[in-house]
Write a structure and sequence with these properties.
Helix content is about 40%, strand content about 20%. By secondary structure, the protein is of the alpha+beta class. It is globular.
Length: about 140
């Protein structure tokens, strides 16, 4: 399994929020995609663990209420993310984290994001800033 440390994942988050395609070179082989295992939390710290190949799109989908569970419990703050090059590794990691006791999940988040900052907090404001103002309804 190949996991990326969180500091590299934050760089990938920055690229994703700018709408960049996220690919990496793997030796002399062709480009490979990244897959993200992420944890969202509500303000009361209810958790949701998921996997995606498009973190920006998926987080926005959660925030727009497109997932019944996260909409019902207002789980929309990205508090943890890691990336993998292999989808099978990402699925294995997601299942591993989902199988953990809540305490262990909280420790994982605390170890990388002790303040529980929303790692995607600026995404909506930056998206609004880049939207054509003529398309906004008055």
């Amino acid at each position: 399994m190949t996991f990326v440390i969180l500091s590299e994942a934050k760089d990938l988050l920055f690229a994703a929020q700018k709408g960049c395609a996220i690919c990496v070179r793997d030796g002399a082989s062709s480009d490979m995609r990244r897959f993200f295992v992420y944890i969202l939390a509500s303000r009361s710290r209810r958790l949701y663990v998921g996997i995606t190949n498009d973190l920006f799109r998926r987080v926005l989908a959660h925030r727009n209420g497109e997932s019944a569970f996260t909409a019902r419990y207002r789980i929309n703050r990205l508090v943890y993310v890691e990336s993998c090059r292999d989808v099978r590794a990402a699925i294995t990691r997601e299942k591993q984290i989902k199988g953990w006791l809540r305490k262990k999940k909280l420790e994982l988040i605390d170890s990388f994001n002790p303040k529980w900052d929303d790692l995607a907090a600026t995404w909506l404001s930056e998206e609004a800033a880049t939207t054509d103002p003529s398309l906004r309804s008055g």
